[in-house]
Amino acid sequence: LNIFICFLFFILFIFFISIQTKALNYWELENIQAISAVVLDGKSGKLLFAKNPHLKIPPASTTKLVTAMVVLDKISLNKKVKISKNVEHISSVTPYLYAGEIYTVKDLLYLALLNSSNQAAVALAEAVAGSEKAFVKLMNEKVKSLGLKETHFSTASGLPAPYQYTTAYDLAIILYEALKYPLIKKIIRTPKKIITSSKGRVLVLKNTNHLLKDPEIKKEIIGGKTGYTRMSRHCLVNAVSYNNRLIITSILGDPERDYLWEDTKKLVEFSKLVLSNKLSPVLIKTSVNTAILASKKFKYYVNGKKYFKKYKNKHYKLVKE
Length: 321
What we know:
By secondary structure, this protein is α+β, with helices and mostly antiparallel strands. It has one domain (33-320): 3-Layer(aba) Sandwich (Beta-lactamase). The protein has helices at residues 2-30, 64-74, 85-88, 105-113, 118-129, 132-145, 168-178, 182-188, 257-275, and strands at residues 36-41, 47-51, 80-82, 102-104, 192-196, 202-206, 221-229, 233-242, 245-254, 282-288, 294-302, 305-312, 315-320. Helix 2 packs antiparallel against helix 4 (105-113), helix 2 packs parallel to helix 5 (118-129) and helix 5 packs across helix 6. The two termini are 39 Å apart.
């Protein structure tokens, strides 16, 4: 009898720990600061996590993933591109490009994807289509061909413009498709690159994705693309490999740059638990006021069933509604 009682207490203890573990992990999800985010299982195509997945938000520099795909579809990597006066005057990060300089398409792709150069993105657009406006039409045709209905571009760089938007869900699909291009995959996982202009000027490029050097996750990183504008706030779409399985996290509207890295790591860890059948996929909806500000009212959906938060004795758990 004593053995049976001990065994029963052991089972109850394990059950209690299991409940607390689940509560802890669901609680962590609410602490994700981004207004919109998804996690896509690259093998099944299913969402492991979603928070306002279809909210339209300006894509910022994540746009450049589509720019790169269109470029690689249309022209040779060895083609030489002369920087125009129009490109010289575009707002961009350093190192700046100057009119008259000549770069290969490949070098400009490194500038656009690794260093997030707006100038390089527009230079590539002009090289492919003669003008950025004409190139943008090709970009919108590209996303349409991928079956994406919640994305539209107005610029090749992601700089603010009317009628330019994407969703966390569409952006995850965009990275999934971009990874099919070997050069894009190579560039976005490159920490640092040095290129030289036709005039001998040395340009040092550093990857804007800080997760590449994060000791907690760098071994799993495949690569990704960051973005920022005042309207979109901080954005990151990123891919990792887990047990030979592709996991894509897509984050839009994080209030601070550093939150991108922490939110991504939380989502990756949660996804591992889902794929290990220790947790269920979750959908979170909030009352959204603007593209930047979201209500604190959360609605959870686990396995299609609605839950609400319950606090008791300082413990947190989800309770079926």
